[in-house]
């Protein structure tokens, strides 16, 4: 330990608290520039047992980050740190406002180290006046201090991360808009990849997004140092998507452990923090990463498109700076909500499935057979201009099922013949006899879209999808979201993209072996069958008579 403490790196570390990390093993030097090798080494933890090697690898990886021409370096720090240091002691320096109450995690730092975090953060605020929101910054500084020769070197490394100018490479969010849209994106990913955890959160919390908004704090704040450093290893090599993976894996382990606990606090948000802080009692850092990389997540491109859609919805609603957020998951107001099919509690459960950017909206009744009569023509007229919509059906047997439909019904007239349209955000569900959602088959079986579709592929435009997917060729931003547009996927079968279709004679939702829903022109009779598009069983009795049919819109949704 003494040898390590006297090493080139680690002057800010309290080696007595470092445990096994204080004992060096593994390679003492690593010269590798091949990204595939680095990715493999990071996932395996090759340099995690040697403090000096990890420090050298971090220096190399961060040095390779493409940055703005004028990026503050170690010399700038030495110049301004003297002025900061003369005014007051480092330990008494307040953290910048953009940290928003974030604390300095100890991460086994000594007193010089905790003071250095404050000093470096103050100097970064001086050099980056455009940063308006970055609560994770103290944790990143504290972690990198472990692997820096001095404060100036740590400052330079953090500045390079903040000044990255590669548009395809996301490292640290620096505005409230980016931070909040990341939270929404994480919420969307939990809903799709951890449905059982999501169900638990919805049942236990009034504000679901409030629980998910702590996801970065779980990683950089709650995780013990050996775990946080392992995450940093892969983050520097593979980027932001890794953080989503790790947070999803944390939730999967949390649910597993919680299922065996006899007593819980009743505060789910706090229970997750407590679990992550004590994660060493349940799972190793290697098992956590293995679980994270076993999740078959969307491509980087799709996640970026989802993030952009979430940012756009926040901008449209004027939510660009931190403010007291309305309880978004109580958008279904029990006092003002009325449906002939579902209760406000059931509607809230459905609302928890819709993409986060629409969970900000109030439900708005567009059509009901109770009021508008049993006419498909009237249904189209009432729904046209609204995107997305929610279809609810109650049968004469009391069964309840429906569909979330991503795209405006006006798109059905885009061609001369019947054609399917919509995006992979569509899903179908049933509420009675029991509650179950069925999403696009490609989400659980990405092998059905084995490779990105070639951008000039004629098949993409003509057979896999119609022109109605959610992005205009001329101006991608003119439509709300290109997220999960089928042209992004090299689908092995047309049936995987049969989301929604409509004519004057019927409505179809889903295709393949059969339709998830078929509704006739009189909105009187329907059929449901096993459906390939959503990998769904029949949603109710296979042939049924409709008692009530409703279509709901999303109030203030951004329609094209």
TrEMBL record:
Lipid bilayer topology: Peripheral membrane protein
Signal sequence annotation: none
Record region (Disordered): 451-479
Coiled coil: none
Top-rank taxon, per record: Eukaryota
Record keyword ATP-binding present: no
Segments of skewed composition (Polar residues): 456-471
Residue ranges of domain Rab-GAP TBC in the record: 37-239
Alphabetically ordered keywords of this record: Cytoplasmic vesicle, Membrane, Synapse
Subcellular location: Cytoplasmic vesicle membrane; Endomembrane system; Synapse
Main location: membrane
Ranges for domain TLDc: 340-555
General function of this protein: May act as a GTPase-activating protein for Rab family protein(s). Involved in neuronal projections development, probably through a negative modulation of ARF6 function. Involved in the regulation of synaptic vesicle trafficking.
Matches recorded under PANTHER family: GTPASE-ACTIVATING PROTEIN SKYWALKER, NUCLEOLAR PROTEIN 7/ESTROGEN RECEPTOR COACTIVATOR-RELATED
Subunit architecture: Interacts with ARF6.
Protein name: TBC1 domain family member 24
Organism name: Polypterus senegalus (Senegal bichir)
Gene behind the chain: Tbc1d24_1
């Amino acid at each position: 330990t003494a040898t390590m403490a006297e090493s080139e790196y680690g002057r800010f570390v309290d080696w007595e608290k470092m445990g096994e990390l204080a004992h060096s093993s593994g390679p003492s030097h690593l010269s590798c520039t091949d990204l595939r090798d680095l990715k493999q080494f990071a996932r395996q933890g090759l340099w995690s047992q040697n403090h000096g090697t990890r420090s050298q690898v971090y220096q190399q990886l961060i040095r390779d980050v493409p940055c703005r021409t004028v990026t503050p370096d170690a010399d700038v720090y030495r110049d301004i740190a003297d002025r900061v240091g003369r005014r007051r002691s480092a330990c008494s320096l307040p953290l910048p406002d953009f940290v928003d109450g974030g604390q300095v995690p100890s991460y086994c730092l000594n007193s010089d180290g905790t003071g250095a975090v404050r000093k470096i953060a103050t100097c970064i605020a001086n050099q980056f006046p455009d940063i308006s929101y970055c609560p994770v910054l103290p944790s990143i500084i504290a972690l990198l201090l472990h692997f820096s020769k001095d404060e100036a070197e740590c400052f330079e490394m953090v500045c390079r991360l903040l000044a990255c100018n590669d548009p395809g490479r996301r490292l640290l969010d620096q505005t409230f808009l980016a931070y909040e849209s990341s939270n929404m994106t994480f919420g969307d990913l939990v809903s799709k990849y951890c449905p059982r955890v999501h169900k638990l959160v919805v049942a236990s919390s009034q504000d679901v997004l409030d629980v998910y908004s702590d996801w970065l704090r779980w990683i950089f704040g709650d995780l013990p140092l050996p775990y946080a450093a392992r995450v940093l290893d892969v983050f520097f090599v593979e980027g932001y998507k890794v953080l989503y993976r790790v947070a999803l894996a944390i939730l999967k382990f949390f649910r597993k452990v919680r299922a065996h606990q006899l007593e819980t606090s009743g505060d789910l948000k706090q229970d997750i923090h407590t679990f992550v802080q004590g994660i060493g009692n349940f799972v190793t850092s290697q098992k956590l990463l293995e679980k994270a990389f076993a999740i078959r997540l969307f491509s980087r491109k799709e996640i970026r498109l989802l993030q952009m859609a979430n940012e756009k919805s926040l901008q449209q609603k004027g939510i660009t700076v931190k403010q007291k957020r309305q309880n978004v998951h109580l958008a279904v107001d029990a006092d003002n909500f009325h449906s002939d099919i579902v209760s406000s509690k059931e509607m809230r459960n459905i609302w928890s499935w819709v993409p986060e950017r629409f969970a900000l909206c109030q439900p708005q009744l567009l059509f009901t057979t109770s009021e508008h009569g049993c006419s498909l023509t009237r249904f189209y007229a009432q729904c046209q201009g609204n995107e997305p919509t929610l279809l609810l059906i109650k049968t004469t047997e009391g069964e309840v099922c429906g569909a979330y439909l991503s795209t405006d019904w006006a798109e059905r007239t885009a061609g001369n013949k019947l054609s399917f349209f919509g995006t992979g955000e569509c899903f179908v569900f049933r509420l009675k006899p029991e509650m179950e959602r069925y999403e696009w088959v490609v989400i659980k079986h990405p092998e059905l879209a084995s490779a990105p579709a070639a951008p000039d592929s004629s098949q993409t435009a003509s057979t896999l999808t119609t022109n109605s997917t959610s992005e205009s060729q001329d101006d991608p931003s003119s439509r709300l979201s290109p997220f999960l547009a089928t042209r992004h996927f090299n689908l092995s079968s047309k049936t995987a993209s049969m989301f929604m279709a409509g004519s004057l004679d019927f409505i179809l939702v889903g295709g393949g072996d059969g339709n998830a829903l078929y509704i006739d022109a009189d909105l009187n009779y329907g059929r449901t069958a096993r459906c390939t598009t959503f990998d769904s069983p029949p949603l109710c009795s296979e042939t049924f008579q409709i008692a009530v049919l409703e279509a709901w819109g999303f109030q203030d949704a951004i329609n094209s």
